[in-house]
Protein backbone atom coordinates (compact mmCIF):
# COMPACT_ATOMS: atom_id res chain seq x y z
CA UNK A 1 0.00 0.00 0.00
CA UNK A 2 1.22 3.47 -0.78
CA UNK A 3 0.14 6.55 1.11
CA UNK A 4 -0.06 10.06 -0.27
CA UNK A 5 -0.86 11.95 2.88
CA UNK A 6 -1.59 15.60 3.42
CA UNK A 7 -4.17 18.35 3.52
CA UNK A 8 -2.23 21.02 5.30
CA UNK A 9 1.16 19.96 6.67
CA UNK A 10 3.80 22.41 7.81
CA UNK A 11 2.53 25.68 9.20
CA UNK A 12 0.11 26.54 6.43
CA UNK A 13 -0.37 23.45 4.24
CA UNK A 14 1.49 20.93 2.17
CA UNK A 15 1.46 17.23 1.31
CA UNK A 16 3.56 14.21 2.13
CA UNK A 17 4.00 10.98 0.25
CA UNK A 18 4.56 7.56 1.78
CA UNK A 19 4.41 4.25 -0.07
CA UNK A 20 3.53 0.88 1.35
CA UNK A 21 3.83 -2.56 -0.13
CA UNK A 22 0.54 -4.06 -1.28
CA UNK A 23 -0.93 -5.92 1.67
CA UNK A 24 -3.73 -5.80 4.19
CA UNK A 25 -3.67 -6.67 7.87
CA UNK A 26 -5.07 -5.19 11.07
CA UNK A 27 -2.24 -6.65 13.13
CA UNK A 28 0.76 -4.55 12.24
CA UNK A 29 2.67 -3.86 15.46
CA UNK A 30 5.47 -1.53 14.49
CA UNK A 31 5.98 1.54 12.34
CA UNK A 32 9.49 2.08 10.93
CA UNK A 33 11.54 5.00 12.15
CA UNK A 34 11.25 6.88 8.86
CA UNK A 35 7.61 7.70 9.66
CA UNK A 36 8.85 9.85 12.52
CA UNK A 37 10.96 11.87 10.11
CA UNK A 38 8.14 12.75 7.74
CA UNK A 39 7.63 16.29 9.00
CA UNK A 40 11.13 17.12 7.75
CA UNK A 41 11.46 14.88 4.70
CA UNK A 42 8.16 14.46 2.91
CA UNK A 43 6.10 16.78 0.84
CA UNK A 44 4.19 16.95 -2.39
CA UNK A 45 2.93 20.27 -3.67
CA UNK A 46 0.64 21.45 -6.40
CA UNK A 47 3.29 23.19 -8.45
CA UNK A 48 5.51 20.21 -9.23
CA UNK A 49 5.26 17.40 -11.75
CA UNK A 50 5.57 14.08 -9.96
CA UNK A 51 6.11 10.82 -11.80
CA UNK A 52 6.47 7.44 -10.17
CA UNK A 53 9.61 5.77 -11.42
CA UNK A 54 11.57 2.61 -10.66
CA UNK A 55 15.25 2.90 -9.87
CA UNK A 56 17.34 -0.03 -11.09
CA UNK A 57 19.73 0.56 -8.21
CA UNK A 58 17.12 0.61 -5.47
CA UNK A 59 17.62 -1.85 -2.57
CA UNK A 60 15.01 -4.55 -2.07
CA UNK A 61 13.95 -2.99 1.22
CA UNK A 62 13.47 0.52 -0.17
CA UNK A 63 13.19 3.35 -0.22
CA UNK A 64 11.71 3.83 -3.68
CA UNK A 65 11.88 7.50 -4.48
CA UNK A 66 9.42 9.55 -6.44
CA UNK A 67 11.19 11.55 -9.09
CA UNK A 68 10.38 15.20 -8.41
CA UNK A 69 11.12 17.63 -11.18
CA UNK A 70 11.14 21.25 -10.10
CA UNK A 71 8.73 22.68 -12.60
CA UNK A 72 5.96 25.21 -12.34
CA UNK A 73 3.33 22.48 -12.66
CA UNK A 74 0.79 20.89 -10.36
CA UNK A 75 1.63 17.56 -8.80
CA UNK A 76 0.87 14.83 -11.32
CA UNK A 77 1.11 11.13 -10.61
CA UNK A 78 1.68 9.34 -13.91
CA UNK A 79 -0.24 6.06 -13.88
CA UNK A 80 1.11 4.75 -17.17
CA UNK A 81 4.40 3.04 -17.97
CA UNK A 82 6.05 0.86 -20.58
CA UNK A 83 7.95 -1.10 -17.92
CA UNK A 84 5.97 -3.95 -16.45
CA UNK A 85 7.91 -4.03 -13.17
CA UNK A 86 7.30 -0.45 -12.14
CA UNK A 87 4.61 0.50 -9.60
CA UNK A 88 3.16 2.94 -12.14
CA UNK A 89 2.36 0.10 -14.55
CA UNK A 90 0.40 -1.58 -11.77
CA UNK A 91 -1.64 1.59 -11.47
CA UNK A 92 -2.69 1.27 -15.11
CA UNK A 93 -3.84 -2.28 -14.43
CA UNK A 94 -5.67 -1.09 -11.34
CA UNK A 95 -7.24 2.04 -12.73
CA UNK A 96 -8.03 0.72 -16.20
CA UNK A 97 -7.72 -3.04 -16.26
CA UNK A 98 -9.86 -4.24 -13.36
CA UNK A 99 -12.23 -1.32 -13.12
CA UNK A 100 -13.78 -1.25 -16.57
CA UNK A 101 -17.49 -2.06 -16.69
CA UNK A 102 -17.22 -3.98 -19.96
CA UNK A 103 -14.12 -6.09 -19.56
CA UNK A 104 -10.43 -5.42 -19.38
CA UNK A 105 -8.78 -2.63 -21.30
CA UNK A 106 -5.45 -2.77 -23.09
CA UNK A 107 -3.08 -1.41 -20.47
CA UNK A 108 -0.20 -1.47 -22.94
CA UNK A 109 -1.78 1.23 -25.08
CA UNK A 110 -4.04 3.05 -22.61
CA UNK A 111 -2.74 5.92 -20.53
CA UNK A 112 -3.98 7.29 -17.25
CA UNK A 113 -2.86 9.90 -14.77
CA UNK A 114 -4.01 11.89 -11.77
CA UNK A 115 -3.47 15.62 -11.41
CA UNK A 116 -3.65 17.27 -8.00
CA UNK A 117 -5.36 20.59 -8.77
CA UNK A 118 -5.33 21.53 -5.10
CA UNK A 119 -3.79 20.22 -1.88
CA UNK A 120 -4.60 22.99 0.56
CA UNK A 121 -7.07 23.88 3.26
CA UNK A 122 -10.41 25.63 2.82
CA UNK A 123 -8.95 29.15 2.91
CA UNK A 124 -5.90 28.14 0.88
CA UNK A 125 -2.35 29.42 1.19
CA UNK A 126 -1.23 32.15 1.61
CA UNK A 127 -3.60 33.42 4.26
CA UNK A 128 -4.57 37.06 4.46
CA UNK A 129 -4.38 36.88 8.27
CA UNK A 130 -0.73 35.87 8.06
CA UNK A 131 0.21 38.47 5.49
CA UNK A 132 -1.40 41.27 7.52
CA UNK A 133 -0.04 40.18 10.91
CA UNK A 134 1.96 43.06 12.39
CA UNK A 135 3.99 41.21 15.04
CA UNK A 136 4.73 37.86 13.39
CA UNK A 137 5.96 36.98 9.93
CA UNK A 138 4.75 33.60 8.66
CA UNK A 139 7.51 32.28 6.37
CA UNK A 140 5.17 29.89 4.54
CA UNK A 141 2.59 32.52 3.64
CA UNK A 142 5.12 35.19 2.78
CA UNK A 143 6.87 32.74 0.53
CA UNK A 144 3.58 31.57 -0.98
CA UNK A 145 2.68 35.17 -1.79
CA UNK A 146 5.44 35.12 -4.40
CA UNK A 147 4.24 34.07 -7.84
CA UNK A 148 5.21 30.48 -8.62
CA UNK A 149 6.09 29.54 -5.04
CA UNK A 150 5.48 25.85 -4.30
CA UNK A 151 3.55 26.60 -1.10
CA UNK A 152 0.76 28.45 -2.90
CA UNK A 153 -2.17 26.06 -2.39
CA UNK A 154 -5.83 25.82 -3.30
CA UNK A 155 -8.76 23.69 -2.19
CA UNK A 156 -8.17 19.95 -2.34
CA UNK A 157 -9.19 18.63 -5.76
CA UNK A 158 -8.13 15.73 -7.96
CA UNK A 159 -8.53 15.20 -11.71
CA UNK A 160 -8.46 11.61 -13.00
CA UNK A 161 -7.71 11.28 -16.71
CA UNK A 162 -7.96 7.95 -18.47
CA UNK A 163 -8.44 6.46 -21.91
CA UNK A 164 -11.77 4.62 -21.81
CA UNK A 165 -12.59 1.40 -23.64
CA UNK A 166 -14.32 3.43 -26.37
CA UNK A 167 -11.06 5.22 -27.12
CA UNK A 168 -12.24 8.55 -25.66
CA UNK A 169 -10.07 10.35 -23.12
CA UNK A 170 -12.23 10.99 -20.04
CA UNK A 171 -11.74 13.70 -17.42
CA UNK A 172 -13.26 12.94 -14.03
CA UNK A 173 -13.01 15.61 -11.35
CA UNK A 174 -13.23 14.89 -7.63
CA UNK A 175 -14.55 18.01 -5.86
CA UNK A 176 -14.97 21.52 -7.22
CA UNK A 177 -14.26 23.85 -4.34
CA UNK A 178 -13.98 27.61 -4.01
CA UNK A 179 -10.59 27.72 -5.77
CA UNK A 180 -11.42 25.27 -8.54
CA UNK A 181 -11.82 27.84 -11.32
CA UNK A 182 -8.44 29.38 -10.49
CA UNK A 183 -6.84 25.94 -10.72
CA UNK A 184 -8.58 25.28 -14.03
CA UNK A 185 -7.44 28.63 -15.43
CA UNK A 186 -3.85 27.78 -14.67
CA UNK A 187 -3.65 24.09 -15.51
CA UNK A 188 -6.38 23.08 -17.97
CA UNK A 189 -4.76 24.95 -20.88
CA UNK A 190 -1.37 23.59 -19.85
CA UNK A 191 -2.55 19.96 -20.02
CA UNK A 192 -4.96 20.43 -22.91
CA UNK A 193 -8.04 19.70 -20.78
CA UNK A 194 -11.21 21.16 -22.33
CA UNK A 195 -14.19 19.07 -21.28
CA UNK A 196 -15.31 17.74 -17.90
CA UNK A 197 -16.99 14.37 -18.26
CA UNK A 198 -18.20 14.21 -14.66
CA UNK A 199 -17.68 15.53 -11.15
CA UNK A 200 -17.72 13.36 -8.02
CA UNK A 201 -18.39 15.05 -4.67
CA UNK A 202 -16.80 13.84 -1.42
CA UNK A 203 -18.91 16.00 0.91
CA UNK A 204 -20.91 19.22 0.98
CA UNK A 205 -18.44 21.66 2.57
CA UNK A 206 -17.62 24.79 0.60
CA UNK A 207 -14.08 23.66 -0.21
CA UNK A 208 -15.61 20.70 -2.07
CA UNK A 209 -18.70 22.25 -3.73
CA UNK A 210 -18.10 26.00 -3.71
CA UNK A 211 -17.04 25.98 -7.36
CA UNK A 212 -20.10 24.24 -8.80
CA UNK A 213 -21.49 27.57 -9.97
CA UNK A 214 -18.32 28.16 -12.01
CA UNK A 215 -19.05 25.07 -14.08
CA UNK A 216 -21.33 27.37 -16.11
CA UNK A 217 -18.30 28.21 -18.26
CA UNK A 218 -18.23 24.59 -19.45
CA UNK A 219 -21.99 24.07 -19.82
CA UNK A 220 -22.44 27.39 -21.64
CA UNK A 221 -19.44 27.15 -23.95
CA UNK A 222 -18.03 23.62 -24.12
CA UNK A 223 -20.68 21.00 -23.42
CA UNK A 224 -24.40 20.73 -22.76
CA UNK A 225 -24.23 19.59 -19.13
CA UNK A 226 -22.06 17.89 -16.52
CA UNK A 227 -23.07 14.85 -14.43
CA UNK A 228 -22.54 15.40 -10.71
CA UNK A 229 -22.28 12.28 -8.54
CA UNK A 230 -23.33 13.12 -5.00
CA UNK A 231 -24.72 11.42 -1.88
CA UNK A 232 -28.29 12.05 -0.70
CA UNK A 233 -27.18 13.86 2.46
CA UNK A 234 -25.07 16.24 0.37
CA UNK A 235 -27.75 16.93 -2.24
CA UNK A 236 -29.99 18.00 0.64
CA UNK A 237 -27.40 20.60 1.62
CA UNK A 238 -26.92 21.70 -1.98
CA UNK A 239 -30.67 22.12 -2.40
CA UNK A 240 -30.33 24.99 0.09
CA UNK A 241 -26.87 26.41 -0.63
CA UNK A 242 -27.09 25.96 -4.43
CA UNK A 243 -30.86 25.68 -4.81
CA UNK A 244 -30.86 27.22 -8.30
CA UNK A 245 -28.51 24.51 -9.56
CA UNK A 246 -30.48 21.66 -8.03
CA UNK A 247 -33.82 23.09 -9.18
CA UNK A 248 -33.27 25.30 -12.27
CA UNK A 249 -37.01 26.04 -12.49
CA UNK A 250 -36.60 28.76 -9.84
CA UNK A 251 -34.20 30.88 -11.89
CA UNK A 252 -35.11 33.63 -14.33
CA UNK A 253 -35.56 32.30 -17.83
CA UNK A 254 -32.44 32.77 -19.93
CA UNK A 255 -30.07 32.99 -16.96
CA UNK A 256 -26.83 31.20 -17.84
CA UNK A 257 -26.21 29.08 -14.75
CA UNK A 258 -24.43 25.74 -14.64
CA UNK A 259 -26.43 22.93 -16.22
CA UNK A 260 -25.79 20.00 -13.92
CA UNK A 261 -27.23 16.50 -13.89
CA UNK A 262 -27.27 15.36 -10.28
CA UNK A 263 -26.89 11.61 -9.89
CA UNK A 264 -27.42 10.17 -6.41
CA UNK A 265 -24.89 7.68 -5.14
CA UNK A 266 -24.94 5.46 -2.09
CA UNK A 267 -22.04 3.74 -0.39
CA UNK A 268 -22.15 1.01 -3.04
CA UNK A 269 -19.83 0.95 -6.09
CA UNK A 270 -20.98 2.84 -9.18
CA UNK A 271 -19.68 3.42 -12.69
CA UNK A 272 -18.64 6.71 -14.28
CA UNK A 273 -18.24 6.40 -18.05
CA UNK A 274 -17.37 2.73 -17.60
CA UNK A 275 -14.92 3.32 -14.75
CA UNK A 276 -15.77 1.57 -11.49
CA UNK A 277 -15.73 3.87 -8.47
CA UNK A 278 -16.06 2.45 -4.95
CA UNK A 279 -17.08 4.87 -2.15
CA UNK A 280 -14.97 4.78 1.01
CA UNK A 281 -17.18 6.01 3.90
CA UNK A 282 -15.30 7.95 6.58
CA UNK A 283 -16.04 10.44 9.35
CA UNK A 284 -15.13 14.09 8.81
CA UNK A 285 -15.82 15.25 12.34
CA UNK A 286 -18.32 13.88 14.88
CA UNK A 287 -21.48 12.72 13.13
CA UNK A 288 -20.46 14.07 9.71
CA UNK A 289 -20.04 11.53 6.93
CA UNK A 290 -17.69 12.10 4.01
CA UNK A 291 -16.68 9.84 1.16
CA UNK A 292 -13.33 8.80 -0.13
CA UNK A 293 -13.22 6.92 -3.42
CA UNK A 294 -11.37 3.92 -4.79
CA UNK A 295 -10.61 3.63 -8.50
CA UNK A 296 -8.90 0.34 -9.26
CA UNK A 297 -6.02 0.08 -6.79
CA UNK A 298 -5.91 3.80 -6.02
CA UNK A 299 -7.75 5.08 -2.93
CA UNK A 300 -8.43 8.79 -2.33
CA UNK A 301 -9.53 10.05 1.11
CA UNK A 302 -9.25 13.83 1.24
CA UNK A 303 -11.20 14.79 4.39
CA UNK A 304 -11.21 12.41 7.34
CA UNK A 305 -11.04 12.39 11.12
CA UNK A 306 -11.79 8.68 11.56
CA UNK A 307 -11.87 5.66 9.28
CA UNK A 308 -14.53 3.21 10.50
CA UNK A 309 -13.60 -0.46 10.65
CA UNK A 310 -16.20 -1.37 8.04
CA UNK A 311 -14.19 0.66 5.51
CA UNK A 312 -10.94 -1.25 6.15
CA UNK A 313 -11.79 -4.17 3.83
CA UNK A 314 -12.39 -1.69 1.00
CA UNK A 315 -8.71 -0.73 1.25
CA UNK A 316 -7.50 -4.29 0.79
CA UNK A 317 -4.79 -4.64 -1.88
CA UNK A 318 -4.75 -0.87 -2.35
CA UNK A 319 -1.46 0.20 -3.94
CA UNK A 320 -1.81 3.96 -3.59
CA UNK A 321 -3.64 5.66 -0.74
CA UNK A 322 -4.04 9.44 -0.87
CA UNK A 323 -4.83 10.44 2.70
CA UNK A 324 -5.69 13.60 4.62
CA UNK A 325 -3.10 14.86 7.14
CA UNK A 326 -3.69 18.45 8.20
CA UNK A 327 -0.73 18.99 10.51
CA UNK A 328 2.55 17.19 11.27
CA UNK A 329 2.18 17.45 15.05
CA UNK A 330 -1.46 16.78 15.93
CA UNK A 331 -4.92 15.91 14.68
CA UNK A 332 -8.05 18.06 14.84
CA UNK A 333 -11.73 17.34 15.34
CA UNK A 334 -12.26 17.12 11.58
CA UNK A 335 -8.92 16.07 10.07
CA UNK A 336 -6.22 13.47 10.51
CA UNK A 337 -2.83 14.73 11.55
CA UNK A 338 0.38 12.85 10.85
CA UNK A 339 0.36 11.06 14.26
CA UNK A 340 -3.13 9.73 13.61
CA UNK A 341 -2.09 8.59 10.14
CA UNK A 342 0.75 6.62 11.74
CA UNK A 343 -1.63 5.06 14.25
CA UNK A 344 -3.95 4.05 11.43
CA UNK A 345 -1.07 2.33 9.67
CA UNK A 346 -0.51 0.13 12.73
CA UNK A 347 -3.77 -1.62 11.93
CA UNK A 348 -3.92 -1.68 8.14
CA UNK A 349 -0.41 -2.43 6.88
CA UNK A 350 1.44 -5.66 7.58
CA UNK A 351 4.47 -4.81 5.44
CA UNK A 352 5.80 -1.53 4.14
CA UNK A 353 8.48 0.03 2.02
CA UNK A 354 9.22 3.69 2.34
CA UNK A 355 9.01 6.18 -0.47
CA UNK A 356 8.88 9.88 -0.03
CA UNK A 357 9.17 13.18 -1.80
CA UNK A 358 11.83 15.18 -0.04
CA UNK A 359 11.08 18.69 1.06
CA UNK A 360 12.49 21.00 -1.57
TrEMBL record:
Pfam families attached to this UniProt entry: Lactamase_B_2
Domain Metallo-beta-lactamase: 154-335
Bilayer-crossing regions: none
Name the record gives this protein: Metallo-beta-lactamase domain-containing protein
Species in which this protein is naturally found: Marchantia polymorpha
Organism placement in taxonomy: Eukaryota, Viridiplantae, Streptophyta, Embryophyta, Marchantiophyta
Amino acid sequence: MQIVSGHGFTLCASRVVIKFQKSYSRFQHSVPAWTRRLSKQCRIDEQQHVRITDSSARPKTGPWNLNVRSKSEPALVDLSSNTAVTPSHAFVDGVLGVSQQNGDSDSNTATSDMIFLGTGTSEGVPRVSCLTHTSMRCPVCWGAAQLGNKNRRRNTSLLVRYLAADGIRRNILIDAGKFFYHSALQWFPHYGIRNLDSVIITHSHADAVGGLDDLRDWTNNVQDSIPIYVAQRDIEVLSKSHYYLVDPSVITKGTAVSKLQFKLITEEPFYVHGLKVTPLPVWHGPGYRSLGFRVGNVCYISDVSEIPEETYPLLENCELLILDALRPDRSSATHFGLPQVSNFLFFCCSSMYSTYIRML
